[in-house]
Structures are given as structure tokens and as C-alpha cells.
């Protein structure tokens, strides 16, 4: 494999390294209120573009098949948004009688109530050719 072919194959990693190097040399470009306006571009535009692009890559047949698994979707939603936060809350009740710092417990409670990045898992599963259903 020649150098040019290797560069074409690893373009994404090279791009990340290049962007990190540029950010290290000129950090003022990406600061809040800077020319890139990350408070707008990242929060709204980049996240929306990522999800829109992910949605475009779905096949209609796969989407309709996935929508038919209502019980699975309900289970995942209830487990993620009800069971897990409740279990964390009960665990924190036990930890509250120990000498653990109150702010650490509040941080654990906050993280315990946050849903996991399911979309990231789906994208990574798809990237390696795994079964998404």
C-alpha cells in the first residue's frame, strides 16, 4: 500500500489530527463568541446535520421493520428512562448515609438520570456492519 493510498484510506483520522493541531496553534477561532460561533454551530447546526445524515442513510424498509418492534421500543424506553434512574436513586439513598461528599452524590444523580447515547451506539454498530435490530 503506497503512501497516497494510505492517506486516502485514513483521511478522517488525518483530518482530526489536522484540526487538533490547528486548534492548538490558534485556539481563539473556536472559543465562545469567536469566528466559528460554537454556541450556535455545534449546538444547533452540527448536531442537526449529524442526525439528519444518519436518518438519510436509513432504508425505508428497515425503518418500517424497526417500527414494528413496539414492545422492544417500550422496554428500552422504560428501562432507560424509568428503571435505571429509579435504581440509581435507590442506590444514592443508600450512599447518602455514608460520609460521601454531598456534591458527588448530586453529580451521580444527574448522570444517572441522563439517557445513554443510544444514537451513538446505533451509528457505531452500523459502522462495523452489525445488526441494528
Question: What does this entry look like structurally?
Answer:
The protein is an all-alpha fold and 133 residues long. The chain is 73% helix and 0% strand. The chain is built from seven helices and no strands. It starts with a helix and ends in a 6-residue tail after the last helix.
- Major sheet summary line: none
**Which consecutive residue ranges, at least 5 long each, have pLDDT under 50?**
none
Count of discrete alpha- or pi-helical segments spanning 4 or more residues = 7
What does the average pLDDT come to? 85
Classify the secondary structure makeup into a structural class.
mainly alpha
Write down the oligomeric state.
single chain
The proportion of strand residues reads under 5%
Helix percent reads over 70%
Spatial separation of the terminal alpha carbons: 36 Å
Order of helices and strands: HHHHHHH
Shape: extended
Secondary structure: number of strands: 0
Radius of gyration: 21 Å
Quick synopsis:
73% of the residues lie in helices and 0% in strands. It has 133 residues and is mainly α.
List keywords for this structure.
mainly alpha, 133 residues
Chain-wise SSE layout:
Layout: H1 3-9, H2 11-25, H3 38-56, H4 60-67, H5 70-95, H6 102-113, H7 118-127
Amino acid at each position: 500500500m503506497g503512501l497516497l493510498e494510505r492517506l486516502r484510506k485514513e483521511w478522517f483520522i488525518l483530518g482530526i489530527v489536522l484540526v487538533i493541531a490547528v486548534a492548538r496553534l490558534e485556539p481563539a477561532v473556536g472559543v465562545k463568541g469567536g469566528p466559528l460561533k460554537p454556541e450556535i454551530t455545534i449546538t444547533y447546526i452540527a448536531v442537526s446535520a449529524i442526525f439528519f445524515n444518519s436518518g438519510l442513510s436509513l432504508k425505508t424498509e428497515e425503518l418500517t421493520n424497526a417500527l414494528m418492534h413496539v414492545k422492544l421500543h417500550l422496554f428500552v424506553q422504560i428501562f432507560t428512562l424509568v428503571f435505571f434512574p429509579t435504581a440509581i436513586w435507590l442506590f444514592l439513598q443508600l450512599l447518602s448515609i455514608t460520609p460521601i461528599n454531598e456534591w458527588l452524590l448530586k453529580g451521580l444523580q444527574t448522570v444517572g438520570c441522563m439517557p445513554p447515547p443510544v444514537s451513538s451506539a446505533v451509528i457505531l454498530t452500523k459502522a462495523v456492519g452489525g445488526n441494528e435490530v
